[in-house]
């Protein structure tokens, strides 16, 4: 996947704001990319442009292969009137996949993301962590080859977030899909990524691209981890 | 607001039971005192049914118009900024002023009453829907786009369920206004119906029939509210966004 000179402007109260300017990078197939930056750097807007939810004012996104995009939201964005099972099946239902097939896929995912016994609950009855498991399963149900995650663990407590990070890693390993995750947490970026896209704000630009070569599974307390963390933190601070 | 207060109170089951009991006791007492014979039950219920189907027809028309208008208007912000002020102005139009015109056009029949009912019912539903549509969260719209709910699928599986709570609350208000309106409308147009039945009783000085008739009407409407609207209202909490 290639992003070429992406720019995004919008007007707020008749003032023109440049959210993104000349954003370019490449992400390889099967790569785990993390976009990191301070709030207001346009990283969520960038992800929405990649997802096709918004169109860039300039530049373009080029996908080298046929893509199916799954999206996981910071706010979960589950349909309140559907059960866990129905939420997961939503994308398949929209594709007019028959009920028995939908059930089969959803049941399998329910097992994989750890929602057994919650099939018929409504989102309201679930904890934040459980809701995001539904969000992840719903995104996986349409068999995406690209999974986009917008600060997926930001509204969760650290313990739950850690569990979900391992879940995402295991999903990535098992399916070998391309993942692009947006976060503002340095540690999360280093733990997960192959490639880190560091962004600065006002207007949002790519400050640097870092290849993260740390061996997996990663030891969050190793010297290499800490030194990369320092490097990243300095980059973001001076932006 | 008067309406929100009403909705909150009818939610309470205790309240429902209490009112039902009071109504029943009152009715029984009145029937015993005045004698049921003064009220022609068959004629009363036939009148009621006639009014009832007018309200139903008008309700179905009003809700269709309201949903359709909401979808069209909210499809672009330009349409919204043009139409909201226009609708706001139209809303204050006194619909009863149309009666002479309607009678000239259609003669004295049900169509006049139904048109007036539609004009009364469409506003509360439409404005509740418009404000509910505004409150649909962007992330839910994005999710429906990502997961392929476009066109009719978006309408059926996203928009309609998300608007469902507003449809119910808007309908409850509209339904209440419709029964206020129909009694007067039937008397003005002079068509048969429960309004006319009561009016005739009044003209003949049959106070007993009037009192029992009004109480019976209240009781029937109360039961409909309890068993249809109240349960829909309870059901709609499931559809509410967090």
Task: Explain what you see.
The complex is a heterodimer of chains A (239) and B (242). With 239 residues, chain A is α/β, with parallel strands linked by helices. Chain A is built from 7 helices and 9 strands. In chain A, the strands form 2 sheets. A 6-stranded mixed β-sheet of chain A has the order 5-6-7-3-8-9, with helices on both faces. Chain A starts with a strand and ends with a helix. In chain B, 29% of the residues are buried. At the A-B interface, strand 5 and helix 2 of A face helix 7 and helix 8 of B.
Number of helices of chain A: 7
Structural class of chain B: mainly alpha
Strand proportion of chain B, as a percent range, falls in: under 5%
Distance between the termini of chain B: 23 Å
Task: List the strand order in the largest sheet of chain A.
Answer: 5-6-7-3-8-9
SSE blueprint:
The complex is a heterodimer of chains A (239) and B (242).
Chain A: E1 2-12, E2 15-26, E3 32-36, H1 43-51, E4 58-62, E5 69-72, H2 84-94, H3 99-113, H4 128-141, E6 146-150, H5 158-175, E7 178-183, H6 186-192, E8 195-200, E9 205-211, H7 223-237
Parallel strand pairs in A: 3-7, 3-8, 5-6, 6-7
Antiparallel strand pairs in A: 1-2, 1-4, 8-9
Chain B: H1 2-11, H2 13-34, H3 41-73, H4 77-91, H5 99-106, H6 110-134, H7 138-146, H8 151-189, H9 194-203, H10 207-236
